[in-house]
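Quick check before the chapter quiz. The format below is the same one you will see on the exam, so make sure you can read both the input and the output lines.
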Amino acid sequence: MVLHRAKSLEKSFDRDPGKQEHIFAFMLKLFECKHAELAPPLKSNEECWYLPVFGIYHPKKPDKVRCVFDSSASYDNVSLNSVMLRGPDMTNNLVGVLMRFRKELIGIMADIQQMFYSFTVNEEHRNFLRFLWYRDNDIDNELTDYRMRVHAFGNSPSPAIATFALQKTAENAEQTFGKDVKDLVCRNFYVDDALTSVGSNSEAIDLLNRTKEALKTFGNLRLHKFSSNSKEVRTKLDPEDLAENLENLNFETDNLPLQRSLGLYWNLESDTFTFKVSNDVVFLSFFGITYWSRLIFFLYKGGGLKWPQICKIIKILTEQIFLHKLLEYESII
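Here is the expected output.
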């Protein structure tokens, strides 16, 4: 099964050379960062499992690919995910995180760089994370056995493991870096995204810098992609730590791009949340229904709204869409 999937992926490279370039660049970084290693020969009667590899593109970034190790792939009706414990749901309540995010005057966002890849797998378990790849990351070479050294995207326990380890890091750092650092990590993260608010610019700058140092010191984790609705906060932070679309801006003259997190678009200048509706979404078509389903899910799950409120919002949005002719009506097929 894994060999067949590897050959299918190789055939897709012939149809899309750009995909080949992106995936091999991703894998090169994976090996350079020591997130994966050559797999040693198996000992007699030693168990192992092989994961197919495939790439997924970010819908907003056509040149950005992420390789996923398919733990849901089945062989003889068994998959790796089907035999692993998922662990407890340690994710913070989304509504609570969003409400606290705009409770105080100064809002700040950040995230953990490659959170799942920041935590290593015990060596005795790595043979269950084997995969086939081209030796030396060269497509002209033969497929050979590699294995992951870190927790992979696609593994059902990875979110619980990463969240537990992140919170444990903050608890270990509390005595040195303060209770507010621990509270930020343990209460105001949603998986790898940090969203919180404080009362002043100086408090925001100090909290971000101490949290960054705490996670680096106690967990070798990098907190980055900072953004804030405060110009003073943005100006006084290290430019290398700012969100990618803020790094090279002149905050005095340039228009600020929207910041996206947890399905929200945050307008830093007006300090408001906004939705984006693409002109190529066709209302009541297959893709239109998909879009509206996602919007309703966000309003219900993320916004904490009830059905009467959701229906009113959808009614207003629909009227505005037809009024401005953003979308064309098309019957459901």
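If your answer matched, good. The longest strand covers residues 61-69.
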